[in-house]
Amino acid sequence: MPKSVAIVTGAAGDIGRAVTRRLADGHDVVLLADIDGDAAERAAHDLGAEEHFVAVSCDVTDAPSVAAMAAKARSLGTVRTLVNNAGAARAVSLHDTTQAIWRMDNALNLEAAFLCFRAVEEMLKESQGSVVNVASVNGMNVFGHPAYSAAKAGLLHLTRLIAVEYGKFGIRANAVAPGTVRTKAWEARAAANPQVFEEAKRWYPLERIVDPDDIAEAVRFLASPLAKAISGVCLPVDCGLTAGQAEVARTFSQSNHY
User: Fold this and answer.
1) Is 72 an active-site residue?
2) Which pLDDT tens digit goes with each residue over 47-59?
3) Per-residue pLDDT at 249 exceeds 50
4) Do residues 127 and 80 lie in contact, with contact meaning Cβ atoms separated by under 8 Å?
5) ∠172-43-30 over CA atoms, to 5°?
6) pLDDT at 33
């Protein structure tokens, strides 16, 4: 029987590392794909034995590079899980969004997931596997970064398209939508503004910020047999952000009190 393989894109980042570590429980091999091949190698080395964690340099916006990554995965076994995690945001406002930024954000945050899925879809058919797309609460509501947000909204729809069209092959597709995640990028902001996390927490009903491990646990659940009847859904991992804000609710309630 071929080894079961999980692919995680953007695997060298904080969320990617956490997801990779969690998926090692339930897969024979996890392929760490990242545009920074050296960073992927370091992550794989830090995570454990080289027979379980394999790094590959991959530009997920480039079809030939994605094809090479898929071929590497095939050489290791059969893909059972694909996690489209690679992503980034650029311009904060629509006014500041250029055509180039719009295209770059869509290429990385939406088209890349399409390319990766198509590159491994035959292996996912063989394994009756699972796709988990790391979207964002930005794809569900307006929180800034418009090009990124539009792409993530498209990623949610791509998730449903895969679920509907490929369900007959036993393939499941789901998404997680993180809110603010405590990553190195946010830690850098905190170094400049020590109150940044306190300021952010006021918008979250649980009054805390999501950790990378929170995302990893949700991805692992959706990829596992525990979610065998779940397909086409988006699971917010956002400490309650998309449910609503208590402060806003209180203000609204007070202003409409009779």
Assistant:
1) no
2) 999 999 999 999 9
3) no
4) yes
5) 30
6) 98
Closest Cα to residue 62, out of 20, 116, 19, 21? 116
What confidence tens digit (pLDDT) does each residue in 20-34 have?
A: 999 999 999 999 999
Catalytic residue chosen out of the listed positions 72, 125, 152, 184 = 152
Candidates 72, 148, 166, 204; catalytic one: 148
**Residue whose C-alpha is closest to residue 119's, from 53, 58, 28, 175:** 58
CB proximity list for 203: less than 8 A, separation 6 or greater: 241, 245, 247
258 is catalytic: no
